[in-house]
Amino acid sequence: MVVTGSLEIVRETRETETLIHTHGPGQFTGEANMLSGRRALVRIRARLDSEIIDIDRPQLLRLLQTDTEIGEIVTRAFILRRAELIGRGYGDAVLLGSNHCAGTLRVREFLTRNGHPFQSIDLDTDDGVQELLDTFGVGPDDIPVLICRCEIVLRNPTNKEIADCLGFNESVDLGLLRDVVIIGAGPSGMAAAVYAASEGLDALVVEMNAPGGQAGSSSRIENYLGFPNGISGQELASRAWNQAQKFGAGLVVARKAVRLLCERRPYAVEIDGGQRIGARTIVIAAGAQYRKPALPRLSEFENAGVYYGATFMEAQLC
Fold this sequence. Notes:
By secondary structure, the protein is of the alpha/beta class. The protein has three domains: 2-88, no CATH class; 93-167 and 294-317, Glutaredoxin (3-Layer(aba) Sandwich); 178-284, FAD/NAD(P)-binding domain (3-Layer(bba) Sandwich). It contains ten helices and 15 strands. A six-stranded mixed beta sheet has the order 12-11-10-15-14-13, with helices on one face. A four-stranded mixed beta sheet has the order 7-6-8-9, with helices on one face. A three-stranded antiparallel beta sheet has the order 3-2-4, with no helix packed on it. Strand 13 and strand 14 form a beta hairpin. Helix 2 packs across helix 3 (68-88). The longest helix is centred in the N-terminal third of the chain and has 21 residues, at 68-88. It is globular, with a radius of gyration of 21 Å.
């Protein structure tokens, strides 16, 4: 928080620097990553000789949980700032791909549903893209390509590789014994995380894709309790996840629970890769699966002409 002077919020790329905003006296920095503990997407520097109050993440979470008025102001600011970063594409990732490529749509959906800002370059329409491809030594067989932090080039990456590169799970210690481990981050799983964490329990959610589950891909939900005018699935998922983070719940994305170990206490959840997470309680909120038509070669056209949702993202491709 700025007491005197000013702080500049700057986005740096390989060759350029963009001033996003300047905070003056009485204003505060931070956005949604401050709640999740993920690495910052921007840099902060003093523009003048400045006096500031430095609040770290544990202190901030305690403040949000104990002071309702401050919590409402800060949480709302963080959510709106993240929305602005997403709208402008001010993130640490650049996606190179084609709208006709199923892999490109998968990566775009993964980043979008995880609320991570990124810049998208369409190889079919953007001029000068060949020079960029040559710079990173990318060929047609590598598409889609994700450039992380202007340093690491991922060629047709899996969701787990993306999550690891962008540090989605860096702040989560999988070696800790948890009070509650929740499998699945759909509406019911996120509700369990909110209720558990708000009661002071150490809760961790394991999700193989992104918060929101099947509901997160809905353009409009009008039968969900408390939203008489309806709400988009993405917005519902974002609100639920920010609420869970406010109370200190953790989330592991792009990791799949493959086995439960319940022969003795504490229990354990084994995730892909063989790592085990100790838990006093396990909540299974596995959600729904699509019933797919029994058509030959259907999988070849999924996300490339055949879609299981009608969100804004799919509409742009049709």
